[in-house]
Amino acid sequence: MNAALLKLLRRLVQKGSLTVVFSSGEKVVLGDGTGKPAAIRITDAQAERAILYDPGLKFGEMYMEGRVVVEDGDIFEVLSIIKSNGVEKAATFANSIVALGHVLRQQVKSRLPVNRNRYNVAHHYDLDGKLFNLFLDEDWQYSCAYFHPPGISLDEAQRAKKRHIAAKLLLEPGQSVLEVGSGWGGMAMYLAESSGVEVTGITLSEEQLKVSRERAERRGLADRVRFELQDYRTMQGRQFDRIVSVGMFEHVGIGNYGAFFRKMKELLKPDGVMLLHSIGQVYKPWATNPWIEKYIFPGGYIPALSEVLPRVESTRLLVKDIEILPMHYAWTLRAWRERFVARREEAIRLYDERFFRMWEFYLAASETAFLYDKHFIFQLQLSPSLETVPVSRDYIEAKERELLEFEKTRRRLELVAV
């Protein structure tokens, strides 16, 4: 048994019930026995040493490689026990030095002039579309849903998210809209159909570009919704009435926030409105979890609002509205994780067992970040103009009701057509 790892685990897991079977065969029950129990087995002494030395990176890697095996419960329940106790209790002098090294590397990388954006995006978003079809909603919305009212389905919540954002954009027929990070095209098509606007969606993912264009063509929207393989930083000579960006700001990088908002102001008309939807957290993290950064979102960073708002203010853009959505992504990730795990065999056929465990760990760890690490979604509504946005928020709910009627009418027409 690795005595140093056992000491760390005893200090960490004081609440809950986690059984650990070490590579020696020795079994230890940790915690106070409350809550749903879970159990793991570590298969070899080298894996134990790796977790002790660099838990932020190596615990996930050992799970991916099948060297940490969950024998009771699932990986979400294991991570929930760990996170609910406070991972800072696992800090030692040695692994704190390793963690500091991860922070320094990410800080330097975020400020390098080398453009890694296209590589970083391709690493995640150019995966086989069949993978995302395993767990996303019918419109392939790969960002936080809006569970309003609570308890609605994932599909309903993703429609509610599009409706909520459209309402905040104050759209009028004929306006031009730029979507920065257009995904598989669902938001752009919704805005065009529901509000009569023309949308330009930009992405750095060739796979998403292909799918988006095909979807717009099938929906008869190719004349009003155009998708481009385009980096926002190199856009020139155009201004838009509205800008929307959903789930893209996490990839901008902490060293680029000032440049991002300066470009958004340049691309926005003087009386325009921008809606930015992003993950945030309550404190400056300095770096992304090293496992997430290495395997899932290279170059990603989840900011505190205190890191974002000064960069907004430096451009003289006006903050017209800030909304915090504290639990909606936890519910979204739970729906995604349950759908993904239910189609485990299909995911393994697409890639392999190691890939399945990697994505299961990613979805479970992300869900616990919103449950225990105080992550949230923020929506910033920005404008250069003092007059463009109403002085009270009543217009949002009124517009959402109008958009909901549009959705109901469209669905009735679709049913008749079938």
TrEMBL record:
Q: Does the keyword Calcium apply?
A: no
Kindly list the biological process annotations in GO that this record carries: lipid biosynthetic process; methylation
Cited CDD domains: AdoMet_MTases (cd02440)
Family according to the record: Belongs to the CFA/CMAS family.
Specify the protein name: Cyclopropane-fatty-acyl-phospholipid synthase
Show the SUPFAM superfamilies listed in the entry: S-adenosyl-L-methionine-dependent methyltransferases (SSF53335)
- Organism (species): Sinorhizobium saheli
**What domain of life is recorded for the organism?**
Bacteria
Q: Which PANTHER family match?
A: CYCLOPROPANE-FATTY-ACYL-PHOSPHOLIPID SYNTHASE
- Cited Pfam families: CMAS (PF02353), DUF7884 (PF25371)
